[in-house]
Amino acid sequence: MSQSDAEKIIRELERGHASHPWHGPSRKDVLKDITPDEAARAPGGGAHTIWQLVLHMRSWTREVARRVREGNWGEPAEGDFPAVGVTTNDAWRDAVQGLDAAHDEVRSALRALDAAKLDDVVQGSSGGDTLRETLHGLAQHDAYHTGQIMVLKKLHRAKS
Length: 160
What we know:
Elements: H1 3-18, H2 27-31, H3 36-40, H4 50-70, H5 89-112, H6 131-159
């Protein structure tokens, strides 16, 4: 596999995170004007808050970066849906910046990866997923949850 394959995946991840994905606004654009109150507001029906979704994406992005570096399967160190904790302006800013940092971490891990390892199976994964599939899965995961956040943002603003 050529380095260009890794760069294509990085571009795919970057489009969804902070560039111009074809499906709509990037995650960064969706998050940029969400207030801490909106982020913490429970939508009802047992659905996750925007804040919970951001921490969930951060947690899994860090886990994928770790998988790229180490080549083995694992659960996120922070858990699937880390606890939100305090809901202050600073804490919300830290959550969003933490997601940005996790995105940078996965890009750095991918840039450092020997491109020939993209098709290596992630050791211990039940489905035999390769690193390439895991990284594309992260892009899909991000698009899915960004769409959820966009819907929650619109619902919160419609109720205000």
